[in-house]
Amino acid sequence: MLQPKTEGWQGWDVYAPFYDWENRQTVARRDVRFWQELAGRQTGRVLELGSGTGRLALPLLKAGADLVGIDRSDAMLARARMKARRAGLLDRARFVRGDIRSLPFRKRPGFSLVMAPYGMLQSLTRERDLAETLASVAGVLRRDGIFGIDLVPDLPRWAEYSRRVTLSGSRGARTHLTLRESVHQDRKRGLTMFDQEYVERRGGKKRVHNFALTFRTLSVPQMRRRLERAGLEVRAVLGDYQGGPWHPDADVWIILASRA
Predict the structure, then answer these.
(1) Rounded (5°) CA angle 105-44-87
(2) Taking the C-alpha atoms of 196, 187, 70 and 65 in order, what is their torsion angle to the nearest 10 degrees?
(3) Which long-range contacts (CB under 8 A, 24 or more apart) does 85-92 make?
(4) pLDDT (tens digit per residue) in 57-67
(5) Which residues touch 51 (CB under 8 Å, ≥6 apart)?
(6) Cα separations (Å) of 166 from 77, 90, 152?
(7) What pTM was estimated for this model as a whole?
(8) Are strands 191-202 and 205-216 parallel, antiparallel or unpaired?
(9) Residue 37 neighbours by CB under 8 Å, 6+ apart
(10) Do 69 and 48 contact (CB within 8 A), yes or no?
(11) Is 53 helix (H, G, I), strand (E, B) or coil?
C-alpha cells in the first residue's frame, strides 16, 4: 500500500513563498464573496481554520469582519501579518499559531462563524485528527453559530503523473517560477499526494524548492456522519459559491452546519 510521505499539515512552510502566486492562477478570488457574505450575516467573531497567508482573512477584515485566523505554519502566518501591515489592518488582524485539533480559545462567548475553506479539512489525513478537530470546533462554536466547510471534490479523479509542468510564469519583474508536479493516489484510503518542485530563477541564479502535500477526500455523506458524531448538524449543502444546489459532480462541496 502506498504510504504518504508526510502528514497533511507538513510541507506548508516551504510552500508559503509560492502559495499566493499559485492561487492567483487557480482559485483566485472566486470564493471570496461567498465567505464575505456568510460572515456578514453573522453577529460576532469569525474564526478561520488554516488561515495561511491571509488570502481570505484580509478581504474579510476589509469588509469589517471581527476575524481570528489560526494556522500551524509560522511561515504562512508571517506572510499574512506582512500583508495586514501593508493594508493598514495589523491593529485588527489576529493571527494565531496553533493546532486546530485543540483550539486555544474559550468556549464562551464562542464564534458565530467557523470557516474551513478551500479543502482545509482535507489536510487532516487521519481519522483521529478529523474527529478531534470537529469536536474542538463544536466546543468553540456559539449555539446559533455556523460551521462552514468547503471541500475540493475532484482530487480522487486526478490522473497520476510524474514531474509535469503545471504552472510557469513571472513573479514580479525579475523572478520566473516553474512548478513541476507529481500526483500519486492511494484510492483505498482516499489520499491524493502531490510532490511539488518549484524552480525559481532570478538574476541568472536558480533555486529548487521541494515539498509534499497530502489530502484526504471524504464524500458529503461521510462528512455528515462525522459532523453528527461531533454534535454538529448539517443545515445546507451547496454546489457552488453562488448558493446553487449540491450534486456529486459539483465543482465544490460546501457544507453549512451548526450545533445540534
Answers:
(1) 85
(2) 100
(3) 87/58, 87/61, 87/62, 89/58, 89/61, 89/62, 92/61
(4) 999 999 999 99
(5) 57, 69, 70, 71, 76, 77, 80, 95
(6) 26, 34, 18
(7) 0.93
(8) antiparallel
(9) none
(10) yes
(11) coil
pLDDT at position 7: 61
> Minimum mean pLDDT among 79-83, 110-114, 170-174: which range?
170-174
**Which of helix, strand or coil describes residue 224?**
helix
Q: Which grid cell sits at 204? A: 541568472
Measuring CA to CA, which residue among 117, 121, 124, 60 is closest to residue 94?
60
DSSP 55-123: TTHHHHHHTT--EEEEES-HHHHHHHHHHHHHTT-TTT-EEEE--GGG--S-SSS-EEEEEE-TTGGGG
Length of the chain: 260
What does the block give as the cell for 231? 454534535
Structure confidence by residue, pLDDT tens digits, 131-179: 999 999 999 999 999 999 999 998 888 899 999 999 999 998 899 999 9
State which amino acid sits at residue 56.
L
